[in-house]
Amino acid sequence: MPLLVTDYSWTQTDSTVCLSVPLKGATVRQVDILSTDHYLKVHYPPHLFEAFLFEPVDDERSTAKVGDGVAVFSLPKRTNKVWEQLMITTNDKGKKEIRERALLKYQEKLSAQSTSKVKKGHAEKKYALEKMMKLEREKRDSIQKIKDKEREKTTAELAAWQLRQKEKAEEEDQLKLHSQRDVTSCVIKSAPTLVAFAFLLNTFLHLDQRGDSEAKSRRKQEDLPAPRLVGNIQVTFTPRLFPTALRESRVPEEEEWLKKQAEGRRSVNADVEELGDLKEEERNPDWLKDKGDKCFVTGDHLGAVNAYSLAIRLNRKIPALYSNRAACHLKLKNLHKAIEDSSQALYLLTPPVAANAASRARAHVRRGSAFCQLQLYTEGLQDYQAALKMDPHNEALQADTQRVRDSIQGTAADP
User: Fold this and answer.
1) Are strands 16-22 and 63-67 parallel, antiparallel or unpaired?
2) pTM, whole model, 2 decimals?
3) Which of 36, 37, 69, 71 could cross-link with 102 by S-S, CB 3.0 to 4.6 Å?
């Protein structure tokens, strides 16, 4: 059975109730709070505080502050009047009905929040997609403008070059024609013999061929395009230790998880003097874990607990040791110890990433089983549902979750 918290304190005004619940050394991560308009629950294993409120409060405007070893709640009243007491006086059956109504209302609230979150996520994805499409369209338009501008520039340069070439060719043809006329007239006037005329004609042809070759050489040099510019493009890729893409990953959580794993492999905080009589292999947490696993398989649950406990003394950062010891405590009916070890394993398995999803699911199932054996079905259902989110296709887990849900609704026997 859980330890009920009785050393709470409360004050009130006409419009607000202030409630203070001590946490008895629990961390913020270990505190589970459930609040509705008629019911308030604060659970931090193995302690439990329940308040069946005297009058309804406004759950939407209620606030909670957890820290410095205390949880402080501010509950606005629905009606402005002074309460005679904080809680109503009722029997166990009435408390069970209030508790069930509060759980159903809380589940409906979570469902509405989940639906709202999904719609918001779709809207954000749609906005991001439209924004990305707009940016890509603007980028394509900008590139097309640059291409059109370069095409126009190149076309203008080509037209100007063709015009220059045409003008040069016309000038050369006119010069050639004038030269032929001058030579012919000169030969007729001054060459008395055919020998002189033949010599001059041969000279003219030689000069004409040399002029044509020089003109062709100049044309070839002008036809050559300008040399292209060269350059290098550096491409770098982001190193990834996880298989997910960088845009889909949660980098801070993954880095924190890797840091905890590295600390867990390095940290050995057992006292050397106390371990002086142990063998060399018995000082290795991994060897002790394997030994505990073998003892558990053979049914030696007490021996497995001893092996896991010694491994935990050597290294308190390995979550599998706490989770496996919780399974042993379940077999030995040490239910509160099973809850403590499962909670510690879940604390070490943070942040939640894909690499530790299976381990977190096992820890949730073991803690949920311990809660159900203590007849705390509401807390057990929460753990089973958390495990089912990580492994939604597990048929055995689905059946266990449904049995716990039926037990809460009173339609089935104790699971």
Assistant:
1) unpaired
2) 0.38
3) 36
